Amino acid sequence: MIAARNGMDVLESLGVRVRPSGPHRAVLELPMRSVTARVVTRQHPLKAVDLDVLGRLDPEEEVVLAIVPRLTPAGRRMASEHPDLVVVAVEDGVALVEGEELGRQPAVSVDGALSRRRPWGRFALMRSLLRTSAPRNQSTLARECGITQSAVSQGLKVLDQVERRELGWVCTKPSEIWDLFLSDYPGTGGLSGWWFGLAPVSQQAERVTKEVEGALLSGDIAADALAPWRRPRRGMVYVGSGVELEALGFARSRESKATLEVAIPADPTIWSTARAWASDNGRHDLVDPLIAAWDVARTGGPDADEAVEHLRTQVLDRW
After folding, report:
1. Number of structural domains in the chain
2. This protein's superkingdom (predicted)?
């Protein structure tokens, strides 16, 4: 399956600079102008029914950027008939931009996935339940997760690892919740920008959090703060909107060369669970340990599993 970042890589390889400006929005630097695009991903070649996205542009959006696996004659025709449609075919390594076909490059790896609907609330509830063994009512859980109380109620119904007690809900099988989250969480979604810097990656990431209000450290950097084990391989920062880092000494980069990933997540619960966990660890610039572990596993490396296990131990030892 393809993800938004696969399409971004293709565009960058074809000379189109992409600047994420929201979870589903990006600025495309075209040869003659810059345009703001609504980013949509389809797991099939373009069909006539997909044209309904063209009617969903916000006032500040000028084009739809459709990221698809392959180009078909129908897709080419649609792009030629709709100047406000930019098409990127990941497996073909080509893009149709303002009536022009850009390049034919080797196909980009498509190891990511972008789902239509993701149960963000349920995964946030799992993270909140692991924060403490103290019973909490649904209202408290909703506040920690950043979701409604009814969403908490629905989430509790589908989790077999929880129990209702006199003072509230508790997790009865924390190790199962941890493993279930890491195996089922679909990722934070949204869009990422890739940057390169010369300073140690910890300093790079921490500089961004000092300059960008509300930024959260994740991945190796957060893991190193919570349960030190391995040398950080890449900085990972979540922000709420698009940022430009050239003024801070960074250069834009391809993912394979990047030392820093700055992501605008589609998962809206990340900041809520981070605030809840900060009440325990005192770090208001870190994601919660489960998001950190997920990002460590995604970053990979020969000792990634051990780093994740150290985070797991640090969390579960509290029980």
Report:
1. 2
2. Bacteria
